[in-house]
């Protein structure tokens, strides 16, 4: 069975190898390209979306209340 120290050494060497490999550079470049593309898009965070959803729900409730009030006023005026 392998000594835990040997496994740690192998793991650290493998991590160092990956950190210095072209694959790591590709990953960094891909992340940079995607971040640039997403930055150009008109995107919102999930938090901003949820807040706007709540604002829209409150606005719809107010609109329904105002529509009901206008309807009641129109009926009252028609009854005069």
Summarize the entry for a quick read.
With 80 residues, the protein is mainly α. It has two domains: 1-41, no CATH class; 44-80.
Describe this structure in words.
The protein has helices spanning about 5-20, 20-40, 45-80. By secondary structure, it is mainly α. It folds into 2 domains: about 1-40, no CATH class; about 45-80.
Average of the residue pLDDT scores: 84
Structural class, from helix and strand content?
mainly alpha
Encode the helix/strand succession as letters: HHH
- The low-confidence parts are none
Question: What is the count of structural domains?
Answer: 2
- Rg from alpha-carbon coordinates: 30 Å
Strand content: under 5%
Task: Please outline the major beta sheet.
Answer: none
The strand count comes to 0
Question: End-to-end span in angstroms?
Answer: 98 Å
Helix content: over 70%
Number of helices: 3
Shape: rod-shaped
Descriptive tags:
2 domains; mainly alpha; 3 helices; about 80 residues
Helix-strand blueprint:
Layout: H1 4-19, H2 22-40, H3 46-79
């Amino acid at each position: 069975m392998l000594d835990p120290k040997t496994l740690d050494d192998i793991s650290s060497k493998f991590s160092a190898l990956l950190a210095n490999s072209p694959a790591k550079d590709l990953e960094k470049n891909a992340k940079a390209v995607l971040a640039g593309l997403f930055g150009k898009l008109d995107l919102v965070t999930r938090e901003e979306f949820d807040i706007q959803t709540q604002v829209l729900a409150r606005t719809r409730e107010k609109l329904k209340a105002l529509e009901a009030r206008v309807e009641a006023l129109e009926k009252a005026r028609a009854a005069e």
